[in-house]
Fold this sequence. Notes:
This protein has 3 helices and 2 strands; from the N terminus they run αββαα. It has 185 residues and is mainly alpha-helical. The chain has a single domain, classed as Outer membrane efflux proteins (OEP). Strands 1-2 form a two-stranded antiparallel ribbon. It is rod-shaped.
Amino acid sequence: MSKGLELNGLSIKNNPFVDFTLTNLDLTKALTQVEKGKLLPEFKVGGANQSIEHNWRQFLVQGGVSIPLFATAQKSKIIASQISEKIQFEKLNLIESELQNLLNLATQNLQKAESQIQFLEKSALPQADLIIVTSQKQFRNGEISYPDFLQITQEAWTLKEQYLKAILDKLLIINELEYLTGKNL
């Protein structure tokens, strides 16, 4: 197991969901600019040659200017687009806040799991091994019965099982941290 993961500097900025929401925010900003652009006058120029022989005397050029006269509907679309932009911004803030809370909680849980693993490695597992070895000797020498042997070793194996569960919990928390931060730890 890797001892002492670097937990400082963990950030949710690389989280794929944050990136997706940022992309949506950029898209709504671009749509707002498109809607604003529809209020500007348009200049159109076109040309065509109507001759099969490509004669310049039959070349046609057209041009035009379109100016929006009734802009009320377009202004309403701009306002709606700006509201959509604000909604996306608030959504981004909410997502970042929730992910940051989850990151803080996962960091705390990882520290708890590591302290539990350290306790089990330093005191509980050596005691469990000693209990198993001692009870096996006592059983072989006939000092304890088989039901007593099972009961004594069951407690030791329960401690070993708790150790394995603590390691599993730590790995699951690390996996969650990797998801939240968007990088391998």
